[in-house]
Amino acid sequence: MIAELSSQIVATLLNNKIITYKQKDVYQYGFEILISSVITFLIVLVCGCIFNCIIPSFIFFVLFVILRSICGGYHASNYLSCNLIFGFVTIGVLMSYKYINIEVFSDLHYFICMLSFICAIIYSPIENENKHLTTAQKKKFRILGTVLVLMFSLVSTVIKIKLQSSYTILMDMTLLVVSIFMVVVKLKKGGNKTEMSGL
Questions:
Q1: What is the pLDDT of residues 133-168, one digit of tens each?
Q2: Distance between CA atoms of residues 44 and 86, nearest Å
Q3: How far is CA 119 from the centre of its chain?
Q4: What is the distance between the alpha carbons of residues 118 and 25, in angstroms, rounded to a whole number?
Q5: Which of 108, 90, 87, 199 is CA-nearest to residue 160?
Q6: Residues in Cβ contact with 172 at an 8 Å cutoff, skipping those fewer than 6 apart
């Protein structure tokens, strides 16, 4: 659907001579990303309305986007699958935030933080098949990803200790989801960790 809609927009631009044929593929890709991003935003908005937690839903979205852009992770084969998976993930994280008691979650908090930190060190960054990274870029993103995970884990821990707030659950579940996505990709590729040569 997204590809078809993007094609129609690009065809309209071509017919009106707004873009040239050489620019077609670039605009096609750009509109696909734009439309997919709008749908992702709407998923977060709708889920936030359903669970009556708009602000937490957008905090999750921001944290997820930041971590995924640095650490990488699983990419579905098409936009429909991608949006469906993201929808289920968003629902799962928000349900955890809303319905899990922070005291019950307490022990799990430290496990998730440790797991996320280990995954970041061992597996990040996960390369996108369409965007390969140099050795220097891998080193940069691994360090940045590990620092981000550590920073979010520390913030989550402070919130837990000082406030006993469910925002700890929100942050931890976001860290867990990103870690799972990294592990899934590595398992699909045979479980080999990111190459450490030159790092």
A1: 888 999 999 999 999 999 999 999 999 999 999 999
A2: 9
A3: 14
A4: 39
A5: 108
A6: 105, 108, 109, 112, 113, 156
